[in-house]
Design goal:
heterodimer, A: 196 residues, mainly alpha, 2 domains, 8 helices, 78% helix, B: 185 residues
């Protein structure tokens, strides 16, 4: 009994520290966090697998609140129920809370530091590569069929057009359409696909 | 009471903005600027700060606005941030609980089978649009942002040739390279 609660505390502490680290090194919000979550939560700790990470991002993107915080709460709950959720969320929020709180007292000066902007320009290049490579890794868990390929390609086009503001189509609708066509395709058109 | 008011306004913003981040800006303009807590210019400046500090934009704004309370900045920042996080925290907890029960359901799996390609596409689109937006240094004329491509190339090489390199390490290296290269040019 004592052993069990000890290992539980260990998991909770690890959740907090992992998400603190993720919160500290995520620049540029939301999706910039995915490569870090993938590294720490999927590859390093094996807490969830690729498919589960995709599920979590889908849920996080279609519910209110920042994707980063939502993912932390979800992973935390899965591993440590309510305490896990609280500690992961606290961990992911705390770094930005501390940094912004300090900056808020001299933000006029902070804005004038050119080096901060230069560092961020550099980080943007790394984040581009990291997000691209996370997409590549996650794509390996997709079903290898024509349906996936077509849905992926169409969603990619729509999402890019939306981001460069040529069309106005929220990602949540793209996700919903994916859900509906997936349901129709695998239930009525191509029956008997093994979803074990 | 200012703390309750802060909590409530950020709770509302947290509850009604799906997709997070920049989807929150219109609502923030309405609520925060209307209250006189921040001016339009301050909000725009803050977006720039938020982009060069870690953490989600939404959380950063809540903390920042809360910290402007003159009597007790820490309490102001804490209640605002809590207000922002709480709605999604509660909603995700409920979904995570349901998910644990239904994730083995065949129809749920089928629906997720349709969603997964969309999510991978969304992630890839973020990287592609980042690449597109950073091609030129100037937004009006084309002026190749070569330091961006140089750092991008270095990161790709490190990622390919150094097994299990940590993303954090790559972020730190690229920050350093950015400071050096953009200072020189």
């Amino acid at each position: 009994m004592v052993e069990k609660s000890k290992s539980k505390i260990k998991v909770l502490l690890k959740l907090f520290l992992t998400f603190f680290k993720i919160g500290l090194f995520t620049f540029g919000g939301g999706y910039a966090m995915i490569p870090l979550i993938h590294k720490e939560v999927v590859e390093k700790n094996n807490w969830i697998n690729n498919e589960e990470l995709l599920d979590i991002i889908a849920v996080a993107e279609s519910t209110p609140g920042p994707v980063a915080v939502n993912s932390a709460t979800f992973v935390g709950y899965k591993l440590g129920k309510i305490y896990g959720a609280i500690l992961s969320t606290l961990g992911v929020v705390l770094p930005s809370f501390i940094i912004i709180f300090i900056i808020s007292f001299f933000y006029e000066q902070f804005m004038q530091i050119e080096l901060v902007g230069y560092a961020f320009n550099g980080i943007t290049a790394a984040v581009t590569v990291l997000i691209g490579s996370a997409a590549f890794k996650l794509s390996k868990s997709l079903r290898k069929d024509w349906f996936s390929a077509i849905v992926f390609s169409l969603a990619l086009i729509v999402s890019i057009l939306n981001k460069v503001e040529i069309i106005d189509f929220s990602p949540i609708y793209t996700i919903l359409i994916g859900a509906v066509v997936g349901f129709i395709y695998y239930n009525f058109i191509r029956k008997g696909v093994d979803f074990a | 009471m200012i703390y309750l008011q802060l909590f409530w306004i950020f709770f509302k913003i947290g509850l009604f903005t799906i997709g997070g981040g920049y989807a929150m800006i219109p609502m923030m303009e309405e609520e925060i600027i209307a209250q006189g807590w921040m001016s339009e210019t301050e909000l725009v400046n803050f977006i720039a700060i938020s982009e060069s500090t870690p953490g989600p934009f939404a959380i950063n704004v809540a903390t920042f606005v809360g910290a402007t309370v003159p009597e007790n900045a820490l309490l102001g920042a804490a209640v605002s941030t809590l207000g922002m996080v709480l709605p999604s925290f509660i909603i995700i907890m409920i979904i995570a609980k349901l998910f644990a029960n239904y994730s083995k359901n065949k129809n749920v799996k089928i629906v997720l089978g349709g969603i997964h390609p969309v999510i991978v596409a969304l992630i890839l689109s973020v990287a592609m649009v980042l690449l597109y937006n950073n091609t030129s240094i100037s937004t009006t004329t084309f002026d190749l942002n070569w330091p961006y491509f140089l750092i991008l190339g270095i990161v790709v090489l490190l990622k390919v040739f150094v097994k299990k390199i940590s993303p954090i390490f790559l972020i730190i290296i690229s920050a350093g390279l950015g400071m050096i290269i953009y200072s020189i040019i």
